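User: Predict the complex with S-adenosylmethionine.
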Amino acid sequence: MDRLSDISTVKSILARHGFQFSKALGQNFLINPSVCPRMAEQCGADSQTGVLEIGPGIGVLTRELASRAGKVVAVELDQRLLPVLEETLAQYPNAEIVHGDVMKLDLHRLLAEKFSGMNVVVCANLPYYITSPVIMRLLEEKLPVKAVTVMVQKEAADRLCALPGTRACGAVSIAVQYYAEPEILFQVSRGSFLPPPNVDSTVIRLNIRETPSVEVVDENSFFRVVRAAFGQRRKTLGNSLSSGLGVPKERLGNAMETVGIASNMRAEQLSMEQFACLANELKRAGI
Ligand code: SAM
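Assistant: Here is the predicted structure with S-adenosylmethionine placed in the model:
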């Protein structure tokens, strides 16, 4: 069988199908033979598990997943890849391609229909133009998945996995920490792709928590406060919250004092617990 990580094989399959890479769809295909087996190994795929893949490309990771998992369902947006995948996955009856946009499909329904009674994990080399929206969608919709193992740009990985209270922490890091325990698995150089992107990549795994890491009265208010807090990173917390939430500083000051958070702190200095207390107090105060 053809090795899909072999550059001349990839080029000849793509040429045969008259395929041209689309930059807009984030098409950088893996040609480093060690990456897909490692991802498939570390994502938790076994014979009892169903894997949702996003953006299979020509199926290089899909094959590795299908040889370990009970079933793989891969969502691909680019219609031109469907005949390619039909060919490259012909010998993998447990791999199914769904043509669609991962941002628009009803994922709850898809998982219920395709993986009834199975544990589910997500594994993907994500198209970089939608890294954060896809990850946020997977987390916020509370899909019944155990873990999300994805390759993303190195800078995105550092942000997604940053700990609260550290400089790299942003609103997306707090959201990840709320729903999951993030882990950096390994680095992948830009030369591992065809065509090579301008950045290096990192594979991360988000181990989904059974219950969120902190208790909040109202999730929407919590995330509104988090977004406002990080909205203007150069400003103090008091100023960012005031402009982000549209509330006078004095009103915020009282609530912040009640939970022992100084208004001259910066968002990246707060712990998860402090964010939760602050959001709960602001909610209580009707802000
Ligand atoms: N998994 C392949 C690999 O590792 O070689 C391809 C990864 S490539 C970085 C991203 C893939 O996602 C491409 O196949 C692209 O067509 C697909 N894609 C882009 N946007 C998508 C979307 N909104 N929904 C589903 N697939 C998408």
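Residues 25-30, 54-57, 60-61, 75-78, 81, 101-103, 125, 127, 130 surround S-adenosylmethionine (CB under 6 Å).
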